[in-house]
Amino acid sequence: MKIELKNQAEIAKMRQGGKIASRILKSLESQAKEGVTTLELDQMAEKMILEADAKPSFKGFQGYPGSVCISVNEEVVHGIPSTRILKDGDVVGLDIGVYYQGFHTDTALTCVVGDEVSPEIKKLLEVTLQALSEGIKLCKAGVHLGDVQNVIQKTVEGAGFGVIRDLVGHGVGRALQEPPQIPNYGEPSTGPILKEGITLAIEPMVSMGDWHIKILNDHWTVVTADKSLSAHFEHTIVVGKNNAEILTK
Fold first, then answer.
1. Which domains does the chain have, with CATH numbers?
2. DSSP label at 231?
3. Which of 73, 100, 219, 244 is within CB 3.0–4.6 Å of 17 for a Cys-Cys bond?
4. How far apart are CA 122 and CA 159, in angstroms?
């Protein structure tokens, strides 16, 4: 398994692509309102990506039909945009990939439609985001990837939630998915040792209940087997000597 290192010029391109992805993701979050369809959000995203002289990374990837993945409630990831109308209280995962000047960046967040958020859902989102943050904090040259995976797992399970085990984060850059794979659980002092210039998509996927999943008949949408709500946050980062830089901030 060869993990590709990026040079400063390549990182600069990914930094620009990451800014585009981040800006569009935030804009989508503000538009995820009651009465809007997931297809309308997808169309907004594609328009903004193309206007930024970029391309949607996901469109056509292994046959995926949308420009963004929009996953609602028990859908963990890879929800296909459709005429589904968002309702007040829906938990919505928005996942976007941008291809800019030869490089992909990948980022995601989970939000709730409307102003009323139950304490349980608020905690689910906060813990998933915290797990992402704790994982990124550990990413620097010389650290085992297993240490990053372990801190994500401990953060999630320590709060009483389930770490989705059959889906992983990944390297990202020239390809949308590069080595290494990054499960959101693991043992300390195991796995590859991080080096400066490695670019990774770190993405905890968390369920309010059990970690088991199913894939729906559309062959894309991943749901929790027990129908429990789920959350997903993701950033593309570059590993540095003493810390990681978030490229999708």
1. 8-246 (3.90.230.10)
2. E
3. 100
4. 12
